Every structure is written in C-alpha cells, then in structure tokens.
Amino acid sequence: MKKKNVLNLIKYYAEKNDNAFRNEAYEIAKYFDNIGNYQLSEYIMALLSDANTFSPQMDSEDYKYFRFVDTNTEALPLPDVIKDNILGIVNAVGHNVGVNKFLFEGPPGTGKTETAKQIARILERELFVVDFDLVVDSKLGQTSKNISSLFQEIANLSHPEKVIVLFDEIDAIAIDRINSNDLREMGRATSSVLKGLDGLSDKVVLIATTNLYKSFDKALVRRFDSVIDFSNYTRDDLLDIAEIILNEMLPKFKSVGRNMRLFKKIISLFEQIPYPGELKNLIKTSLAFSAPGAEYDYLKRLFNAIYKTDLSLKDLQEKGFTVREIEILTGVSKSQVSRELKE
C-alpha cells in the first residue's frame, strides 16, 4: 500500500466524495488481500458494508416481478482478474456516464450472484432480483407482455439511483432464438427484452447472470456494456480460494485443527478442482459432519469425498502423503503405517 492511498482516503473524506472514498478503501482492502492478510481485508470490507446507512426506498410488495435480496452474506473469494473487473464496474457506476448494464457469464458456483450482492454493498444500493417464475407464462404471447410490464416497473422506480436490478439466470428468457423450439414465442420474448434494455434509465444498474452464454442471443449480448467471464480460474487460484474458505470457517469449529499442508494436498487430488461455490459446500459439510473432539476428522471426510474407493497405504505414500498424514486419513497408527510400508 502506498502513501498515496492513505492521502487519497483522507482527501475524499474531507471532500465528502463518498464513491471515491469507498473505491480507495476497496483498493486498500484488495492490497491486504493480495499480500495474504485476509483478515484485515475482510475487516475493511465489513466496515464498508456496515457503513451502509441507506434506508429502503422501495417496497418489493408494491411490485409484481421483484423480490428483495439480502446482501449481508459471505462473498465467495475471487481471482484478481475478476476482482479488477468488479472494481471497474464500481468505478463505471460512480462516473455516472450511462455504463450501467453488466452480464456475468460462467458455470454454476463461480460467484456470479454473490458478486452482485457484493457490488450492491459497495455501492450502497438495494438489490432486487427478478422472479422469472412470474415472468415466464405458458400462454401464447403472455411472456412478452410480462417482460414489458417488468421493464415498466423498473422505469417507475421512485429512486432508481439506489437500486440494482438482478436478472439472475436471464437465459430463462434470452436463449438464442435460433435454438428455440418455439421460434415465434422466444422471438417475441427476446425482442421485448431488447426493447426494455434499450429504454433503461442510466440511473438503474442492471446485472444479469447466465450459465449458458454460448446459447445466448447475440443481439442481447450487444446491449450490455460489459461481459464478465467468471470462468477465469486457474488451478492455483482455486487452491488459494480453498485455503481462504477453510481459514474463514475454522474459527466456527473450536475442536478442529489446522493442517493447511495436508488440506492443500487433498484438494490437489481433484483432477479438476471445483469452482468456489462447490468448494465452499464441500469444505463446510466436511467440517460440520466431523466427530466432536476429533481434530482432523474433517480432513479424512474431505479426502473420502474425493476418493470414493479405498486406497492402500502404498497408494497414499505414492501420492506424496507422509506417514503422519496417512495416519490422519486412515486412522491407522504411525507405527503400523511405517511397518506395513516397509513390508
């Protein structure tokens, strides 16, 4: 962190430039995250979240197609390339130049929806998600009418500058018209979305997510100011993220021990390491199901979740596990492990 960051922080505070202040604070948090001081980074982000004094301006009960989303949830760790894009979104919205429509694409579990929540916290905006179950209708032509009504509701927001609208899994209404079984119906629906996006107020921030980007209607892609690829995770990124997730969860389980070397060896056994969402569930389940008082039972459970079949002691040794680590994973004493390996 440079002196300039601290000076800018003081300067923006004195000028009451809230957006610039928060962006600078976010940069400082990012610096501490990059050097491995995750606790301080998370603490700064938590302060930014807690500083949100915005009181609700929009009652979701007054709208048919929206529902409020709680943003006070744990964000999934992201690699630097995606973090930089998210900071770019924050900056773009702060400049108020009409760059306000963003598409997050990538497989499930990559953090698309959780990142939308984090952006809402940073920008001090409320997050409302579109309920596509209410938008999509089996009646001919009704889906298109509902989409038009949805965008009319967005246009009628009393304080659009205080809201982010999330089209989570927008592919429900935006799959490529060429690949649809009902070309006319999907054509009408997609045309309604195109029209709605074209008429969207610059004050509204709209984020859409999709798991099916390759099937996405290309005309619709062009309506977004930026497309963020959430599949840009290297193997090293995922190993680091797994470590971050475990470190965040360990304090909640007082009887378990920290053995990061063995933990990372186990995660490395994956031919394809899962994305953060699945990693988080896998680690949390292993910890939650661990036997009380059994310090490393969660590591054994995590290992068994990866390898469904039993491995011999020799197999474990060949995979690089030490005698002590084999004892943890199998429950066989070190002396017996050593004896059998020698034999």
Protein architecture, described:
The chain is α/β, with parallel strands linked by helices and 343 residues long. Helices cover 53% and strands 8% of the residues. It has three domains: 3-49, no CATH class; 66-229, 3-Layer(aba) Sandwich (Rossmann fold), CATH 3.40.50.300; 235-341, no CATH class. The protein has a six-stranded mixed sheet, with helices on one face. The chain starts with a helix and ends with a helix.
Could you list some keywords that capture this structure?
343 residues, 6 strands, alpha/beta, Rossmann fold, 3 domains, 53% helix, nucleotide-binding
Question: What number is the mean pLDDT?
Answer: 84
Question: Rg to the nearest angstrom?
Answer: 24 Å
The helix content, as a percent range, equals 40-55%
Level-2 CATH architecture of the largest domain: 3-Layer(aba) Sandwich
How many helices in DSSP terms?
17
For the record, the count of structural domains works out to 3
What proportion of the residues form beta strands (DSSP E)? Answer: 5-15%
Termini Cα gap: 55 Å
- Number of distinct beta strands: 6
Element string (H = helix, E = strand) = HHHEHEHEHHEHHEHEHHHHHHH
In this structure, how is the largest beta sheet organized?
A: 6 strands, mixed
CATH homologous superfamily placement of the largest domain: P-loop containing nucleotide triphosphate hydrolases
